[in-house]
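Section 5.1 Outputs to date
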Amino acid sequence: MRKYYLLVSDFDQTLSFNDSGLVLAEMLGIPDFQERVANLSRLNLVQSGAELTYLLRHDPDFRAVREEHLIEVGRRIRLKRNIALLAEFLKDGIDGFRFDFYVVSAAPWLVVHSALQGIVPPDHIIGAHFDFNKGTGEIESVIQVPAGYGKVAAVDSLRLRLGLPTDRIVYVGDGSSDIHVMLHVNRGEGLTIAASETRHIAQIARRTVISDDALSVLIPVLEEIGGYDPSQIRLVFEEQGLLIQEWDRVRTDWLTIRDGSAIAGAA
């Protein structure tokens, strides 16, 4: 009898190499996007990850954004390799295990759907939704934005809908907007995978995998859930017509070292 799991992935810089907001700003010629996001973060005005949604609704420079702009941004997003193969592999499953694959992102749903069209079904994507004015095309209101605790609610809703226990969740993310959901998944004894070495996320995730290939997340999944050893994992990839050319297993220690005499003097 197969065990069912829910595998949820973030989108920006997890399945892609880009930040959706930055691509949108560059496309429309809006300057200083990163600075605007940093200012919002410093002021704690919005949940981490919801900065673009805030700018789309409140920043005058983003008032020109229409539905078609978000769709075009999705077309311009540079995706990691083999997302389609990852989705197919998860759907087919491995011996004794099957995975439902969803993407949960604070990025606009239109962007994510446009980028992953034909790869991930629309109803397997949860993203920010807006109401557009039928006359002007402007964004009138925000319907939902799965950022911060909103991601926790989205993942929990999926789990309950699928009737899965908390230890059957795998979550993959890369940044600060994934912290709350990773802590939540960890508490439920699920598997969390960081797609970047950013300190605040790598310290929380149970595993970290860095690659330009989306299939890389299968390595901790096969090891932690399937109990596969490296030789078995290599064989799985070879059966898909792929070769793991380099596999560097490292452990990272984060250190801050100070002059002890300065501390003693202060005392």
